[in-house]
């Protein structure tokens, strides 16, 4: 579609055309290219859920942003391109002092972390939070928010010593390498029989069950993904015996069901980042033509920070957008794996 045609479409509407600079790589992008995501856009499509860039043009009904503004945005799989067109309510202005690259890491990972910790788990200062896949994008965001915003103590659980070390460097109070033995027993050695107050789980399967059994009286566990590939069944007797709560967080549903809450969560992340209270960890940056390498980096679990192990976001992998469009690559992957 030519720019002139876009300009005509933008007239008398609430759409905004954005020059995309960075686009976060999320596991959802990979799943949708394989035809395995719960939402299957019609072909042709371009992946890319979260992005940062500058406003090129606005519709006549738009008053929230203007040409030249730096913005971050949430798109329905169209952000991994030179430009994208989105509804104005899907954009948030980036304040001075926040780089575009770091801003692009905020929507999915930090939006998830803030809503999981604050809205769902109601985490209180001084409580102990256990987070699985702690070196992933969401895991590191949980550590950042829990430690630096909520003043909670974090136990980081990850699958290697290197990832545990990174989690400790990013603010965790202690760590557990769950590839070396029982998560429940390791947590018990750290906190005793009392258990942890909050669990944020992105892995699922047996690890979820061990984390559930690690909860304290009236503890809360929040399910945010199944990176391990297995969805566990919740033993209801465990909920009863300790009066614990098991709940989920599906971030994108808040867009439809409670947009003000969704928006407040992302606005808080932007504010915290501007204030220097949180700092997204960028694990890797890829050029746009290297998108397949970026996907492999995630699927092979080489990533830490923004490109890791959760259904909706990845630890530290970004694309620095160049003058190309990735849609053909995405379509090729989907055709090969359909």
UniProtKB/TrEMBL annotation:
Residues 4-309 form the Enoyl reductase (ER) domain. Pfam families: ADH_N, ADH_zinc_N. Gene3D superfamilies: Medium-chain alcohol dehydrogenases, catalytic domain (3.90.180.10), NAD(P)-binding Rossmann-like Domain (3.40.50.720). InterPro entries: ADH-like_C, ADH-like_N, ER, GroES-like_sf, NAD(P)-bd_dom_sf, Zn-ADH-like_protein. It comes from the Eukaryota. PANTHER family: QUINONE OXIDOREDUCTASE-LIKE PROTEIN 2, SHORT-CHAIN DEHYDROGENASE/REDUCTASE. Belongs to the zinc-containing alcohol dehydrogenase family. Quinone oxidoreductase subfamily. This is Quinone oxidoreductase-like protein 2 isoform X3. It comes from Vicugna pacos (Alpaca). The gene is LOC102528730.
């Amino acid at each position: 579609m030519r720019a002139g045609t876009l300009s005509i479409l933008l007239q008398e509407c609430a759409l905004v055309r954005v020059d995309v600079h960075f686009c976060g790589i999320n596991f959802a992008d990979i799943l949708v290219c394989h035809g395995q995501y719960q939402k299957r856009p019609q072909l042709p499509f371009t992946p890319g859920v979260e992005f940062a860039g500058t406003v090129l043009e606005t519709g006549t009904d738009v008053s929230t942003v203007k040409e030249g503004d730096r913005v971050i945005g949430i798109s329905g799989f169209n952000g991994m391109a030179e430009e994208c067109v989105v509804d104005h309510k899907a954009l948030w202005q980036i304040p001075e002092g926040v780089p575009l690259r770091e801003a692009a890491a905020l929507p999915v990972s930090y939006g998830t972390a803030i809503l999981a910790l604050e809205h769902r788990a109601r985490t209180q200062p001084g409580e102990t939070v256990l987070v699985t896949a702690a070196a992933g994008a969401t895991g590191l965001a949980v550590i950042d928010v829990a430690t630096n915003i909520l003043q909670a103590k974090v136990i980081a659980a990850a699958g290697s010593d290197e990832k545990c070390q990174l989690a400790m460097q990013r603010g965790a109070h202690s760590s557990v390498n769950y590839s070396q033995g029982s998560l429940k027993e390791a947590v018990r050695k750290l906190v005793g029989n009392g258990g942890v107050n909050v669990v944020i789980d992105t892995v699922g399967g047996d690890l979820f069950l061990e984390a559930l059994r690690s909860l304290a009286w009236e503890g809360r566990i929040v399910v945010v993904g199944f990176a391990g590939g297995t969805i566990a069944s919740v033993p209801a007797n465990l909920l009863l015996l300790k009066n614990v709560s098991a709940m989920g967080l599906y971030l994108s549903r808040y867009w439809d069901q409670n947009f003000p809450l969704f928006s407040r969560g992302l606005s808080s992340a932007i504010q915290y980042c501007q204030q220097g209270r949180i700092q997204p960890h960028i694990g890797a940056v890829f050029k746009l033509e290297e998108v397949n390498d970026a996907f492999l980096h995630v699927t092979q679990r080489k990533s830490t920070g923004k490109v890791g192990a959760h259904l909706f976001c990845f630890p530290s992998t970004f694309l620095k957008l160049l003058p190309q469009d990735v849609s053909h690559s995405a379509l090729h992957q989907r055709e090969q794996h359909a």
